[in-house]
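Hey, I'm writing a tutorial for new members on how sequence and structure tokens pair up, and I'd like a real worked example in the thread rather than a made-up one. If someone can provide the structure for the chain below, I'll link this post from the tutorial.
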Amino acid sequence: MNKWRAVAIVWLIALGLEAQVEVSISLPQEQFLPGEDIIVTVRIGNQSGQPLKLGQGNDWLTFSLDSREGFPVTRTGLPPVEGEFTIESARVASKKVNLTPYFSLLKPGRYQVAAAVKIPQWQQQAISRPVEFTIAKGHPIWEQEIGVPPPPEATNSAPPEVRKYALLQANFRRNLQLYVRVSDPSESRIFALFPLGRLTSVSRPEAQVDRFSNLHVLLQTGAKTFIHNIISPQGRLVVRHTYEYDDYTASRPRFARDPEGRLIVKGGLRRISAQDLPPPEPSASETSPATNAVIGPRP
């Protein structure tokens, strides 16, 4: 009898705390590729009638992550969440945390994650309901190993570090997406992985590496729309330009080399877009003829 009374007391405390402090989590999508950033948003609602002081230390917010298939999920570190703040009563605060660097999530399968928030002034914690997601393996459609150029100040003649570029195709809810991955040759260490855009059945993406070891990808995302992306060996998206099919000259954008051997885009029309990288100048025209000389940035 005493045992069941103790269990009932624990449940009453948990239910009472949940009514005062509500913790919920959400993910931007339900499916990810191995190595892709998994950004979880934690929302903390305060209905306690008093201010909540949180963020003391790096363990006030923790995450539990489990595999639905039963295999263990290795924790490789603690996300940096330290930073004090106060939530007034009847207010909500949120915090975004990238889980990928701190858990080993390279194995395809079904997972669930939950968050726990410690409330020091009450010596209790509030726990969210778990949210499920899937790690799905993308299908590689292009790969190439490259040497990473040394920094300008380097003086030694050591062999270059080798990395691998890969373009991956993934089917999310019947929508084909193209991803780029930068890894070591064995793919055991992923430096970056992110989507480049929607794949169409009209054409296959073009990929070439310039003399600075930057990856150029020309992707057709619509009937007459093309995106030119440049990715550095460090895994940064440094250039993104939009092009359109030129009806007047009946030409589409394509890769070419100028007389100096630089990789350029020829054909089509360059269209200024708010999604451009670097961002367009305020005075930039809507479209411009595609002379399209694009010099790959040095790392």
